[in-house]
Amino acid sequence: MSNHQKRLSVPNSWPVERKEETYTTTAGAGPHGEDGVPLLIVLRDVLGYADSRKEARYALGQDSVLVNGTPASDERRPIGMFDILAFREREEYYRVFPDEGGRLSLTPIDADAAGSKLGKIVGKRQVPGGDTQLTLHDGQTLLVGGDDYATNDSIVVSNDDESVVAQFTYEEGALVTAVRGAHAGRIGRVDEIQVTPGSSANNVRIEDHEGDDDFETIEEYVVVIDENFVDGEGGDDE
Q1: Which residues pair with 198 in a beta bridge?
Q2: 121, CA 20 to 30 Å: which among 99, 134, 135, 139?
Q3: What per-residue string of b and e applies to 207-222 under the rule 16 or more CB within 10 Å gives b?
Q4: Alpha-carbon gap, residue 72 to 129, rounded angstroms
Q5: Distance set, CA 43 to CA 47, 51, 175 (Å)
Q6: Which are the contacts of 31, defined by CB distance < 8 A and separation ≥ 6?
């Protein structure tokens, strides 16, 4: 598999200019599927912390760049929605969040908030012993006790020990953001969950947080968040 691809063909979520150069790097195997942005692009094209792949590799070799609490060593490591980036030497911390154009952007947060990340539950199953295994939007799996979690809920997971430190229920009145589609990046409260019979996707009607027109999107594109995402202060997620 090639390490390069044409910029014109990259996913819309990638924060790159498609007409500046012909090629860019591809994402390696890992979380977030094809929407994952190579860490090299974040370091070079978004933050400007490296001018080349060689410089990025050197920086990663110092174990000073953390993704969700773990040092990153591969410049092709996919970065995606709600990941936490920490630059220890700079004492800078960011959360990956979709902007209103659907592109992934970096929101500055503080050190406390960088200790955990938000995840949308996309699957759950019982495992031997009575525990529940949850699968999150980025492919992460974790075992939890009890059965108090539902698909489409969001949880905040500690980067240290993968414990659940907060849970946000998917229901009418919940604060949510759209992460894909025409309304990506918009935030509001669920006004109505319109259950569609059969295999079609459920629709969600959302009251815009800033008082703009209400909007509708499909359930798959909706993620429950907490007030810190609205405040923009990067405070503690707990």
Answers
A1: none
A2: 99
A3: eeeeeeeebebbbbbb
A4: 34
A5: 5, 9, 31
A6: 78, 80, 138, 139, 140
pLDDT, one tens digit per residue, over 158-199 is 999 999 999 999 999 999 999 989 999 999 999 999 999 888
**4-114 — its CATH code?**
3.10.290.10
**Structural tokens at position 115:** 């200790």
Tokens of 160: 């240290």
Angle at 134 between CA 39 and CA 82, to 5 degrees: 30
The predicted pLDDT at position 206 comes to 98
pLDDT digits (tens, 9 = 90+) for 92-104: 999 998 887 778 8
Residue where the block lists tokens 């009251």: 207
**CATH class name, domain 116-162:** mainly beta
The pLDDT of residue 237? 42
CATH annotation of 175-231: 2.30.30.30
Amino acid, single-letter form, for residue 49: Y
Mean pLDDT across the chain: 85
Which residues, 6 or more positions from 54, have their beta carbon under 8 angstroms from its beta carbon? none
The residues of the chain that CATH labels 2.40.50.740 are: 116-162
